[in-house]
Amino acid sequence: MKKTGIVILTIALIAAICGSFYVVNDKSKRANQKERVLTEVQRITTKDLDKNYPQTPREVVKLYNRIVKCYYGMQYSDEELDALTDQALKLFDDELAANNPKDTYKQSVTADAQSYKDQGVTLAQTGVCDSNDVKYVTDNGSKIAYVKASYFMKEGSSYSKTYQEYVLRQDKEGCWRILTFYKIAADSDTETE
User: Fold this and answer.
1) CA–CA separation, 49 vs 27, rounded Å?
2) What domains, with CATH codes, occur in the chain?
3) What angle do CA 157, 158, 161 make, to 5 degrees?
4) For the segment 163-181, what is each residue's pLDDT rounded down to a tens digit?
């Protein structure tokens, strides 16, 4: 009788352990599936930049390029466009943000995206220079970084590549913010990943 009780208790204990493992594993799978369902727009708009701001000038430009790629190549609602522009503006230096109020910036992005769509132009790929190619200077006590980026555009069956240089300034909290950016000519130093 005693042996039967021990066997039953052992089987019940093994079943409880297996059941617990299944429940924990199933919850983990469901959480991973929810993460996989997010679109790129949703991944960007749900990113908490107050807690997880990009650490380097290069990472700031990479995130901004992800936003730009969403603007010009993905479907999104008006609410998602608002959230995308909010995220982009958080990457801007106060000076650039002051010159680009949210409504003006949003209208500009919308008009540009529509123009690209009307012309059949898509942003196929973006790239940012290597960390070693980021140039750092100090200007009037401000830390400044220069980051080169490339944009591979597709129009019909033809492709073109353009380059921009981003100028970022480190703010009082140590975060790098986009101060300005402009188109540059391709040269041997402009290769980006």
Assistant:
1) 27
2) 40-190 (3.10.450.100)
3) 145
4) 999 999 999 999 999 999 9
